[in-house]
Specification:
This protein is mainly β. The chain contains three helices and 47 strands. The protein has a single domain, classed as TonB-dependent receptor, beta-barrel domain (Maltoporin, Chain A, Beta Barrel). This is TonB-dependent receptor.
């Protein structure tokens, strides 16, 4: 059962707020620096973070640089109730408030949506890119179905790129470190004419493998990537701006390190590698990704507000080869010869186009309105081959699935806010979404009885996703709000079916209703920011990944199931305290209690009452920033952070082999620069305690395979800024 009520959580958060403010007020010095206003576009218009009735974390340019945030994975520990896992480079798995997606397949999508400059990224592989030259990142927690649409039942992530400006400036940076780390980035910005500004940036990253394949003698999990981005901002008239953008990303690397869990039985002569950063994979594998896209945005300012059009085309290509087992078997435990293999080869080619037309009415008679129309079309062609080889008894099974999916989405939405008086504000909105999908699939091989199968299916769904919020502004710096919102994730088909019936069976959409109480506050004359949210989320037909045994094949088969009902209860706190003009402490904390509340049989196991997978009860992060003068012309700055994740499970059965112990990670960055900021030399370290922690597991019964996070890395960087 859920162990705490929302009332107690809200009471605890308010008490903590008041006690913290009171205690810190006694020690506040006379000379303090105020926390500056943070502007976001989380609700499709510019607002102060403290005026937004949504639980949202903001990572600004300084945080992105000092914390060496290079991928979405690095958000973990910097925003509450956020976890990240990665099956491979084309399948990042993001969870917010315990909700995410595994093994999306050709027709299923994520529960946490990624947006790049307001453009929805449909495929998981399309979001695997370097994060560089960004103005900020916004992480919205909880369903965002009204303004952001489908597939935001867990939340949404906005990557906001730095815009071109007419002021000439740029930056060149390089970084070197252990594990063969070599990175270089360059940015150039300036006016191309009186009405056109341009910006160009490029990022190169390389590192050696973080693990070793003892079968081939090579390092694995290496990286060689290049990312580019260019944009033009055209001032077409006094009222019209046109922003044209293009970006591309190329990643090359060998395979994922899969280390066996509970398979090292001497009776089978299983060799799993001496540690979790090693294996005996059949070959080194590959993880190759190519993504690129173009977009055009037109902003037409009118006396009553603004009309915005966003048109985009994006594509992603992935080529993945993985040995999921990473072990070898021999009849003689002293010899290592014949491999035990469960391998995947995936080739995916995806294309999408999208169009959004948005209208914003800016505060007419105390009412602000945002509404619009949305269209999205996607084509996914995917070939996935699986091979299973077992030494004793000798078994070789294969299956190859060639799938083509076509999807169309349409939506109309409206959202309005009415400032009733100086204190009270009422807002709400509604979105209608319509999805239609079609799949053509040809499945061949000998792994399952009855192969080959030819599947042709189509399905459509529609959903209303409303939002209603009441906010109370105690003064211009403090606000309390209560909101009810709904989210919708589209349906599809199982990406790895084990029978003709399951191949054609539809996975239903999932729905969530979110009840949330929140506070946005500033204390100590603007030196302490304290934001909190308590929530209860009720899920229906939650799409969950599970493993099940199938007669005739020795290895369990992955599948998607609709869980019926599940509930999440939680609390989130984000705070920042300025301790003088050069020191600050930031703390974030997330509490999460998840439960499957409906009967769900996985084989013979009823998982009703269990926690959702990858949903730690506690997440937290503490960041300390301090700067000091060195002489009269230079400055030394330090950032140190600790990120904590409590224990959790990697499967719905909550079995001991899928249990992950609590762990913490320590990062640090030390920088020396002149006061004019023309250059900077820095020392950095990530995972300084060299903690070994699982980031992905596939567990069936009591055995399976895991992947661990990056080891301790450290290095030096140099940055040169020019004008």
């Amino acid at each position: 059962m859920l162990r705490y009520s929302i009332t107690s959580l809200v009471g605890a958060s308010v008490t903590l707020t008041l006690c913290t403010a009171s205690a810190l007020a006694q020690n506040a010095s006379a000379q303090q620096e105020l926390i500056g206003e943070i502007i976001v576009t989380a609700q499709k218009r510019e607002q102060s973070l403290q005026d937004v009735t949504v639980a949202v974390s903001v990572l600004d340019q300084e945080t992105l640089a000092r914390s060496r945030i290079q991928t979405v994975e690095n958000f973990q520990g910097l925003t509450p109730n956020f976890t990240y896992s990665e099956h491979n480079s084309a399948d990042p798995q993001i969870r917010i408030r315990g909700i995410g997606s595994d093994f999306d397949g050709p027709s299923l999508e994520r529960s946490v949506a990624l947006f790049v400059d307001d453009v929805y990224i449909g495929r998981a592989a399309g979001g695997t890119t370097d994060l560089f030259d960004l103005q900020r990142v916004e992480v919205l927690r909880g369903p965002q179905g009204t303004l952001y649409g489908k597939n935001t039942v867990g939340g949404a992530i906005n990557l906001v790129s730095a815009r071109p400006s007419p002021t000439p400036n740029g930056q060149v940076s390089m970084s070197v470190g252990n594990k063969g780390i070599l990175e270089a980035r360059a940015i150039a910005n300036g006016a191309l004419s009186d009405t056109i500004a341009g910006r160009m940036s490029i990022s190169r990253r390389e590192h050696d493998g973080f693990a070793r394949n003892l079968n081939t003698g090579n390092d694995i999990e290496d990286l060689d990537s290049t990312a580019v981005r260019g944009s033009l901002l055209i001032n077409a008239s006094d009222d019209v701006d046109v922003l044209l953008s293009a970006d591309g990303y190329r990643r090359r690397g060998n395979g994922v390190n899969r280390h066996a869990v509970n398979i090292g039985d001497p009776a089978f002569g299983a060799a799993t590698g001496p540690g979790p950063r090693s294996n005996y994979a059949m070959d080194d594998g590959r993880q190759d990704n190519d993504t690129w896209g173009v977009s055009g945005r037109i902003d037409w300012r009118r006396p009553w507000g603004e009309i915005t059009s966003i048109s985009a085309y994006r594509t992603s290509d992935s080529s993945i080869s993985l040995d999921l087992a990473g072990v070898q078997f021999s009849r003689d435990p002293a010899a290592i010869s014949a491999p035990f293999t469960v391998a995947n080869d995936i080739e995916e080619d995806a294309h999408q186009i999208s169009q959004e037309l948005r209208f914003m009415v800016d505060s007419i008679e105390h009412v602000t309105f945002v509404g619009g129309l949305y269209f999205y079309r996607e084509k996914v062609d995917r070939t996935e081959a699986t091979i299973v080889f077992v030494r004793t008894p000798p078994v070789t099974q294969t299956n190859t699935q060639e799938s083509s999916v076509r999807a169309n989405s349409y939506a109309v939405f409206a959202d309005a806010s009415w400032r009733i008086n100086d204190a009270w504000e009422l807002s709400g909105g509604l979105r209608w979404s319509y999805d239609d999908k079609k799949i053509d699939s040809n499945i061949t091989g000998n792994r399952f009885p009855g192969l080959p199968w030819v599947i042709e299916a189509d399905k459509n769904w529609d959903a209303f996703t409303p939002r209603l919020t009441l906010a109370y502004h105690t003064d211009r710096n403090n606000m309390l709000y209560a909101t009810v919102s709904r989210g919708f994730k589209s349906g599809g088909w199982d990406g790895q079916p084990s029978s003709e019936a399951t191949a054609s069976q539809t996975v239903d959409p999932e729905y969530v209703t979110n009840y949330e109480l929140g506070a946005k506050t500033l204390w100590l004359d603007g030196r302490l920011l304290f934001n909190a949210a308590a929530f209860y989320m009720d899920y229906t037909d939650l799409q969950l990944f599970a493993l099940r045994s199938v007669a005739g094949t020795p290895v369990p088969v992955s599948t998607f199931v609709n869980a019926g009902e599940a509930s999440n209860l939680g609390l989130e706190i984000e705070s920042k305290l300025m301790l003088g003009t050069s020191t600050s402490v930031s703390i974030n904390y997330g509490y999460l209690d998840t439960e499957i509340t409906d009967t769900l049989l996985l084989g013979t196991v009823n998982v009703e009452g269990n926690r959702l997978s990858r949903a730690p009860e506690h997440t937290a992060g503490v960041t300390f920033d301090h700067s000091m003068s060195v002489g009269t012309n230079h400055n030394l700055s330090l950032r140190a952070s600790y990120k904590y994740t409590s224990e959790y499970y990697f499967n719905l059965e909550n079995t001991p082999s899928a249990h992950v112990d609590a762990y913490g990670l320590v990062d640090a960055h030390l920088a020396f620069a002149p006061n004019d900021g023309r250059w900077e030399i820095g020392l950095w370290g990530k995972n300084l305690s060299d903690k070994i922690y699982p980031t992905h597991m596939i567990i069936a019964s009591n055995t399976g395979f895991m992947r661990v996070g990056p080891p301790r890395t450290y290095g030096m960087d140099f940055t040169w800024n020019f004008e």
